[in-house]
Write a structure and sequence with these properties.
It comes from Enterococcus silesiacus. With about 270 residues, the chain is mainly β. Helix content is about 0%, strand content about 50%. The chain has a single domain, classed as Jelly Rolls, CATH 2.60.120.10.
């Protein structure tokens, strides 16, 4: 099994644009997901041709302008820090397109990719289009911004979601998995977690494990890390005093989020 926790390793792509993370099938145990994290200074640009991939461009922080050569989406992005805990804008672009991003201010961007054969319209997913929900109770509470849920018609394979977890809480909990192509009971979806912490020097713990424990890793995850979940359960624990943000990308053969709780821990949901 390839490693699961990836530290940011900044690499300059051009003047003003740094690639902080690049997770793909050649360096991770993934078949359906690719991820890039970009950091851009005002006025810098980034260009790419997609080929047989779809992408969701998430304006993590700052303001950016995006064009697919036909449409221009100007000054998108809503926040200076993810910990403002407000939704942001994103752009979905499908296969065989090229796109260009221009930073209108200092900006961080996450590019979420999946392989695809379907051509779909380019679309602006406005912050106001995100569905927002509170999940969990007791010490299992988190705030969720659904950017590309499985109910959205915009994507072929991609699912994208942001999750905020306050200190002292658990997230992706009770432990659940989605690694079996067994609908309607469970769907097969790979997943990645891009993590940020507030304050930045914090850390969280994330465990990735399977029923047979042939995969069982518990990781100390720091700001800017990406955790890869090719299969198995994947809970996150957040220490007191620090708040957690992560952006999830999921993709698989069927665009459906149907998870299976670890039966040893599912009783937690029935507590009174």
């Amino acid at each position: 099994m390839a490693r699961l926790n990836y530290k940011p390793v900044p690499r300059m792509l051009n003047e003003g644009t740094s690639l902080l993370q690049h997770i793909h099938k050649k360096n991770a145990a993934l078949h359906y997901i690719e991820l890039k994290v970009l950091e851009m200074t005002a006025g810098s640009t980034y260009q790419e041709s997609l080929g047989k991939k779809e992408v969701c461009i998430v304006a993590l922080t700052g303001k950016i302008t995006v064009t697919d050569g036909e449409q221009i989406f100007d000054e998108i992005g809503t926040r200076e820090s993810v910990f403002e805990k407000i939704p942001t804008d994103s752009i979905y672009i499908s296969i065989e397109h090229s796109f260009e991003i221009t930073a209108n201010s200092k900006a961080s961007i996450v590019l979420c990719y999946a392989p695809s054969e379907k051509s779909k319209p380019t679309v602006l997913i406005k912050a106001s289009d995100n569905t927002v929900e509170q999940r969990g109770k007791y010490q299992n509470k988190r705030l969720v911004h659904n950017i590309l849920p499985d109910t959205s018609p915009h994507a072929d394979r991609l699912l994208v979601v942001e999750v905020f977890t306050d200190g002292g809480n658990w997230s992706s909990y009770p432990p659940h998995k989605h690694d079996q192509d067994n609908l309607p009971l469970e769907s097969k979806l790979e997943e990645t977690y891009y993590h940020e912490l507030n304050p930045r020097q914090g850390f969280v713990f994330q465990r990735v494990y399977t029923d047979d424990r042939l995969l069982d890793e518990t990781m100390t995850v720091e700001n800017g890390d990406v955790v890869v979940v090719p299969k198995g359960y994947h809970p996150v624990g957040v220490p007191d005093g620090y708040d957690s943000y992560y952006l999830n990308i999921m993709a698989g053969p069927t665009r459906k989020w149907q998870f299976h709780n670890d039966p040893d821990h599912e009783w937690i949901l029935t507590r009174k």
